[in-house]
Amino acid sequence: MFEGLSEKLQATFKRLRGKGKLTEADVTEALREVRIALLEADVNFKVVKELIARIKERSVGQEVLESLTPGQHVIKIVHEEIIRLMGGSESKISISSKPPTIIMLVGLQGAGKTTHGAKLANMLKKQGKHPLLVACDIYRPAAIKQLEVLGEQIKVPVFSLGQENPVKIASESLVFSRKNGNDVVIIDTAGRLHINEELMDELSRIKGNVKPHEILLVVDAMTGQDAVNAADAFHQQLGLDGVILSKLDGDTRGGAALSVKAVTGCPIKFAGTGEKMDALEVFHPDRIASRILG
Ligand code: GDP
């Protein structure tokens, strides 16, 4: 993951470490390389501009340039600022003091919503919770079946009413969860190929009806800025609590991981790292930064 970006940044850092003293021009040149590497990784250009300005401001002071290891110092600043860009520390999901905690998953078709609903249920189950998966994606052929197969695999019940109205399915699932002791309800909603009014309208109605504690958007990391734009649009229409970044295992660039929080204000809460049910990680900005920067 992030191979392309990582390689370029490490080459720049190697040159920085190799120099004894650093001048302001050396820092400017190194930051120019960092800027290009980030843009090539499909990080949002405005985010890159602000990031580089912040790093530069902190790097060209006397304290850094006259330190014993100025190169190391600049690298540390880059590291810290990249962590900050992704939100600093991890963002947890809010668990309601009055069960069930209701989590609504939204996203475009193919982003990995259904898979991640099941992965999240699996993670929560391992933490001692009793999740219920709810099949509200009634339009995509085989989506209900897919959720049922995954539920079976991880031994988590799936609530479905076939092609019923999704708002009704969602609200009936809450009644079911209370009767059956499910303390987390994960609602898999419908996706479309593009964001459209009809989709948003249905999602808003489900939101208004079940009042979820968490609305999480699943976006495909490999789509870079398209993922960021989707996050922006969904956030404006629905008010997201966080993002699940799927398919990070196939992402050589890192543009979405580095831009989502800075552009939308929404933290990435989880990352999907494969097709298997245990391929879900809590998104730790510091660990991701270390993977990128080496
Ligand atoms: P949905 O339309 O948003 O519900 O998407 P699905 O959950 O059906 O996922 C679409 C495809 O992406 C499936 O083939 C999944 O196996 C695959 N997929 C989902 N998440 C990941 C991931 O984190 N890594 C990889 N490599 N594949 C994933």
From TrEMBL:
Part of the signal recognition particle protein translocation system, which is composed of SRP and FtsY. This is Signal recognition particle protein. It catalyses: GTP + H2O = GDP + phosphate + H(+). The chain holds residues 1 to 294 of 460 of the full protein. GTP binds at residues 107-114, 188-192, 246-249. Keywords: Coiled coil, Cytoplasm, GTP-binding, Hydrolase, Nucleotide-binding, Ribonucleoprotein, RNA-binding, Signal recognition particle. Involved in targeting and insertion of nascent membrane proteins into the cytoplasmic membrane. Binds to the hydrophobic signal sequence of the ribosome-nascent chain (RNC) as it emerges from the ribosomes. The SRP-RNC complex is then targeted to the cytoplasmic membrane where it interacts with the SRP receptor FtsY. It is found in: Cytoplasm. The lineage of its organism: Bacteria, Bacillati, Bacillota, Clostridia, Eubacteriales.
